[in-house]
């Protein structure tokens, strides 16, 4: 079955992006109707983060999220098999010069990459321009694990680090001149996490951005990827380097990170990865919301 799904994705990558996008939206709406558990998670997340919206508004936002999620699933076929020439036409990268200037000056770079559904496209756009590093989670299905691994290694000399590797491996990668494409906004449990606000909710958040920046002497540079409507492709924004980061206060640094991500989510709320149980780890005594 896995090989059949991979074969179907391979066929789909020949389609124009506008057609692939329509199919992705249809897939997303189908998942919205059938994947009751994930739909419930999305609606709980939206209720916690957007209490000012009524139920009908949150349901519309959830539908829009599933549509763009479906797009991201099918459009990965382009990231895995489309030619470099075609991908170059689809990526609009703003701020590339900021990253080049930091690397040319010998500065280690830590790229803050929140979980928007277009992050894989952003990762490929960066990989086509820089020898970079990222953290790779081994997949349970060996067919998809090989596919994802090869897809991330397609361009340049990319270094994939497993989550089981020590922090030192990430620090070495940044000090060797590889920007680290870093995703710190998922709930990994209480280990190495503290509770700081995210949309006004106390949220278990790993402190890795502050700790890694300090250990590597790295400059934090945000990187956001937006899936554009129709067949327009993807907009990747490499933001301004953060000043005065890290500070002497890890909690303040982690609050700053969450505040930045929250502000980014408000600019494209349908594209954040709401199917993740972001609030599953609770302070002692609080019930789990899911």
Q: Could you characterize the architecture of this molecule?
A:
Helix content is 49%, strand content 16%. It is an alpha/beta fold and 290 residues long. It has a domain at 85-271. A seven-stranded mixed β-sheet has the order 1-9-8-2-5-3-4, with helices on both faces. β6 and β7 form a beta hairpin. The longest helix has 27 residues, at 55-81. It is globular, with a radius of gyration of 19 Å. It starts with a helix and ends in a 23-residue tail after the last helix. The mean pLDDT is 96.
How do the strands and helices of this protein lay out in sequence?
Blueprint: H1 2-12, H2 17-34, H3 36-49, H4 55-81, H5 84-90, E1 91-94, H6 96-104, E2 109-112, H7 119-127, E3 133-136, H8 142-152, E4 159-162, H9 167-175, E5 180-182, E6 193-198, E7 201-206, H10 208-216, E8 219-227, E9 234-238, H11 250-267
Parallel strand pairs: 1-9, 2-5, 2-8, 3-4, 3-5
Antiparallel strand pairs: 6-7, 8-9
Q: In which order are the strands of the major sheet placed? A: 1-9-8-2-5-3-4
Number of strands: 9
The H-and-E topology, N to C, reads as HHHHHEHEHEHEHEEEHEEH
Note the gap between the termini: 30 Å
Tell me the β content: 15-25%
Rg estimate, integer Å: 19 Å
Helix and strand content put the structural class at alpha/beta
Instruction: Kindly report the average pLDDT value.
Output: 96
User: How many H/I helices?
Assistant: 11
Residue runs with pLDDT of under 50 for 5 or more positions? none
| Helicity level | 40-55%
Using the alpha-carbon principal axes, give the shape. globular
